[in-house]
Amino acid sequence: MTSDPPPSALSLQHLTKRYGPTLAVQDFSLDINQGETLALLGPSGCGKSTVLRCVAGLEQPDTGRVLMHGRDVTGLPPEQRGVGMVFQDYALFPHLSVLGNVAFGPKMRRVPKEEAERQAHEALSLVELTGLEDRRPDQLSGGQQQRVALARALATGSDLLLLDEPLSNLDERLRGELRGELKDLLARSGAAALLVTHDQREALAVASRVAVMRAGQLVQVGRGEGLFAQPATAWVAQFLGHENIFVQPDSTALVVPEQALQLGQGNAYTVTTQTLTDSGQNITLAHPLGPLHLHLSPREMALVEGGTLRLRVDEGRVLRVREDRDGAGSQPQQAAGAP
Ligand code: ADP
């Protein structure tokens, strides 16, 4: 006898949400498994936070359902959903100690003081802040405040965590460091996590699966490397950082990944631009497909001879995708008269 698989930790079914004339989220469906971190990735204004707010109960979808472990919570207020949230600005209480901030959730749930503080200590140990319990938020670094916010979400004991751009208030260096840390912490917590971000690197570094969102709709979901290797459309390819995308006459586009470029073989093409970087050179080649961008290591730079570079494009590795970059709502509006 086979038993049914357990229901997803979180299941979003056909969510739609309007704000007046703005269709913020449109027929959005997604499932997250227990223990999984999923990143909701998309440009600013595409509806990510609205999805998150519908999950938290801070916003009511116009249509569609939110299920947690198979239970329909769509009509429930936030406090009855039991999710842990980490906001962009951390929203720590400035007048409470670190311990007070983290124990706040359990105390609100009427957990006795001693037990609430035990849970807070446990969460603080998980984020490696033991020893800083008595400090106030303004006596902590940005990274430490971020970890307090995460500990506070963990101390809710919830098996579903919602994180809204949790690293965006930190400087670039710290953000890079904390990505790996956040991934480990979330894995250790065993919770399902929905992470909202507009930062491709953050999504790929922290989450095991990434859902790409554009103009209120889900456009592609998959494992991070898989998405980059197999973007569904030209817009996804460009958004994830592919540089060589060439429009074809038939509304498709060719995406040429770096692995398709074989240097030092084939025809010689003229180098049209050349810029030094800290790890080599960025160059542009006049290729029949169009201007082709390459990053050359110092060793590869030796292959440039007389202003040309030999290059073969391995056609087996070139992707043909749908060209969707000039559809409605996809590009920032150009001001009248702009080039
Ligand atoms: P993201 O999180 O991807 O930046 P949001 O979910 O915040 O996007 O916003 C999606 C769209 O809905 C945007 O066009 C935004 O201006 C609009 N929007 C969000 N919240 C409100 C609101 N409370 N009232 C009116 N429009 C809103």
Structure, explained:
- The protein has 339 residues and is of the alpha+beta class.
- The chain has two domains: 220 residues, Rossmann fold; 89 residues, no CATH class.
- The protein has nine helices and 17 strands.
- The strands form four sheets. It has a six-stranded mixed sheet with strand order 6-7-8-3-9-10, sandwiched between helices.
- The C terminus is likely disordered.
- The protein binds adenosine-5'-diphosphate.
- The site of adenosine-5'-diphosphate (ADP) has 11 residues, from strand 2 and helix 1.
- InterPro entries: AAA+_ATPase, ABC_SmlMolc_Importer, ABC_transporter-like_ATP-bd, ABC_transporter-like_CS, ABC_transpr_FbpC, P-loop_NTPase.
- GO terms for molecular function: ABC-type ferric iron transporter activity; ATP binding; ATP hydrolysis activity.
- It comes from Deinococcus radiophilus.
- This is ABC transporter ATP-binding protein.
